[in-house]
Amino acid sequence: MTSSKWIVDSTHSSLDFSVKHMMIAKVKGNFASFEAQIDADPSDLTTAAVYVSVDLSSVDSRNADRDNHLRSADFFDVEKNPEMTFRSTRIVKTGDDEYKVTGDFTLHGVTRPETFDVIFEGAGKDPWGNEKVGFSGKGSIKRSDYGLTYNAALETGGMLIGDEIKISIDLEASKQA
Q1: Regions of the chain where pLDDT drops below 70
Q2: Which of 8, 30, 72, 103 has the fewest CB neighbours in a 10 Å radius?
Q3: What average pLDDT does the chain have?
Q4: Which of 69, 47, 49 is nearest to 59 (CA)?
Q5: CA 171 to CA 19: how far, in whole Å?
């Protein structure tokens, strides 16, 4: 096979996150608006190029006040930094349909290398004959690495918001003509 351009179908994809709250629970959310392009030959994904762009204003943690706070200068500062991006720089096969995807992750004006564990879920045709591929992935980042340091000390010790952000990705992409 040759390399083809694949565009993520946002209606069949998700970009979710979770973070510790009060050191005892997790807050989960997602980004409703994101785009991704994958230039790949599904038979050799180590040669793929992946680009993801996330509209940070689309954050949804099921609490409007918290979402507005996340959009503010205390966190994402979406007026100055409206998007989060990832551009792959290296892909290593680690098992059957399993990969380590490393790339430049940009958030809050800071770019750092990050690596995600990705599984190629498969390829097929939909009922209308369109070629599709599926991927799932997970990883984590430290928000402090990106200057996102807002927090509050708890009376019982520890901090209100955890530093580690766990990220989970499920993508379905369509082959472009």
Answers
A1: 1
A2: 72
A3: 94
A4: 69
A5: 21
Is the alpha carbon torsion for 128, 133, 139, 142 positive or negative? negative
Please say whether the dihedral angle defined by the alpha carbons of residues 70, 161, 54 and 123, taken in this order, is positive or negative: negative
Residue 39 and residue 7 in contact, taking contact as beta carbons nearer than 8 Å: no
Instruction: Give the number of other Cβ atoms within 10 Å of residue 144's Cβ.
Output: 11
Could you tell me the CA-to-CA distances from 138 to 104, 114, 126, 158, 176 in Å, in that order? Answer: 16, 11, 26, 26, 26
Residue 43: predicted pLDDT: 79
- Residue written as tokens 């349909």? 97
The confidence score (pLDDT) of residue 35 equals 93
Task: State both tokens at 128.
Answer: 């209308």
Q: What pLDDT, on a 0 to 100 scale, did the predictor assign at position 2?
A: 77
Q: How far is CA 39 from CA 3, 61, 174, in A?
A: 6, 31, 11
Q: How far apart are CA 161 and CA 25, in angstroms?
A: 10
pLDDT of residue 62: 95
